[in-house]
Amino acid sequence: MAGELAPLAQAFFAANPELSLQALGSGVHVPSLDLAPAGIPVTHLLAEHNAELARQYLTLNQLAFGGIGVPRWVLSDLYLLPGAIGLLRCPARLLKAPARERLLLADEELAIGAACYVAPSLTPGLFVGVSLFSFLPGRGASSWVKTLTLGMVRAKRLRGVTQWDNPAVRVHTRLGPMRLVGRVPGGHDYDERTFVYETDLGDEARVAQAMARGEEQAPATRIPVTDLVALGSLLDRAEAGARLELVPPGQDAGHVLVRELHG
Ligand SMILES: CC(C)(COP(=O)(O)OP(=O)(O)OC[C@H]1O[C@@H](n2cnc3c(N)ncnc32)[C@H](O)[C@@H]1OP(=O)(O)O)[C@@H](O)C(=O)NCCC(=O)NCCS
Predict the structure, then answer these.
(1) Strand, coil or helix: what is 154?
(2) 181 strand-pairing partners
(3) What domain of life does the UniProt record list for this protein's source (predicted)?
(4) Contact 232, 194 (CB under 8 A)
(5) Is the dihedral of CA 176, 179, 183, 187 positive or negative?
(6) Is residue 146 part of a domain?
(7) Max CA-CA distance within the chain?
(8) Nearest to 259, CA basis, from 164, 197, 178
(9) Number of domains the chain is built from
(10) For the purposes of burial, counting CB atoms within 10 Å of the CB of 138, is it exposed (0-12), middle (13-18) or buried (19 or more)?
(11) C-alpha 187 to ligand 1 mean position (Å)
(12) Domain span holding position 13
């Protein structure tokens, strides 16, 4: 990715000059990464030599996700050994309160402000969204760390897991429509409101348009995020082959915005 997204990414960092893009992962993968996604330089930090940063990531992940935060061995075996975590780093004073208090850093020390990990899969170009969090609200930090991390790993498609009522739906639709895939293979702690979606990243101009919320509002059906019967039947239909998607901005005033594609 280096065309249409580049000016938007530059504008984001110009508006947020204290943020920088970094990656934490195993050295063996460095040659496979694009270390200038959308033209933004990434400083790659070797996980082998940055245990303290990995510990900070673990703390923030567990704070962001509570009971389903990443266990330490999963961080090592399934994040840092096979891939690289994308990080937006910033002075600790910018973090929102619970994170700042938990990390015990001095105001000017560099902290992780937002992070995204997408796991490689058996299907070439397809990555799986595993963990996205931000402690820098109100800046679009999570949509940028997600977009740039996907660029860094050269992803063409993303499959992710989220909840109808999670504010993250608005973040995910910054990369384009979220096609409904179905329920989570193997189940989920929040099964009744959780689903798998797929985002196509093959067309950079389309991703850039979604990042800028530039797309024309497509006509969509509004379904309350609490109507789990209606939302469950959408998943039944998606699993049976119907082409259903959440259209940007994905969520609005307690509803998800759904469109069916025909033909
Ligand atoms: C979801 C999360 C990543 C968003 O972080 P962020 O990028 O700093 O959030 P922002 O303040 O920039 O808001 C991003 C979008 O969500 C919306 N949003 C944020 N908080 C919201 C809330 N409480 N209710 C409704 N919408 C909300 C914003 O309006 C914005 O929408 P826009 O892109 O259309 O303008 C962050 O809240 C988080 O870390 N949550 C816990 C972990 C999690 O659930 N991760 C997602 C797993 S799928």
Answers:
(1) coil
(2) none
(3) Bacteria
(4) no
(5) negative
(6) no
(7) 57
(8) 178
(9) 2
(10) exposed
(11) 24
(12) 1-116
- Within the chain, residue ranges assigned H as helices are 5-15, 51-65, 72-74, 97-103, 141-152, 168-172, 204-211, 228-239
Residue 151 domain-assigned?
no
Q: pTM for this structure?
A: 0.97
Q: Are residues 67 and 160 in the same domain?
A: no
**140 in contact with ligand 1, CB cutoff 6 A:** yes
Q: Give the model confidence (pLDDT) of 209-238 as tens digits.
A: 999 998 666 789 999 999 999 999 999 999
Out of 99, 116, 133, pick the residue that ends a domain: 116
The answer to whether the beta carbons of residues 43 and 22 sit under 8 Å apart is yes
Which atom in ligand 1 lies closest to the alpha carbon of residue 65? 42
pLDDT digits (tens, 9 = 90+) for 56-78: 999 999 999 998 999 999 999 99
How far apart are alpha carbons 51 and 30 in whole angstroms? 18
Q: Which of 87, 116, 145 is the last residue of a domain?
A: 116
Task: Tell whether ligand 1 has an atom less than 6 A from the beta carbon of residue 98.
Answer: no
Check residue 123 and report its DSSP letter: S
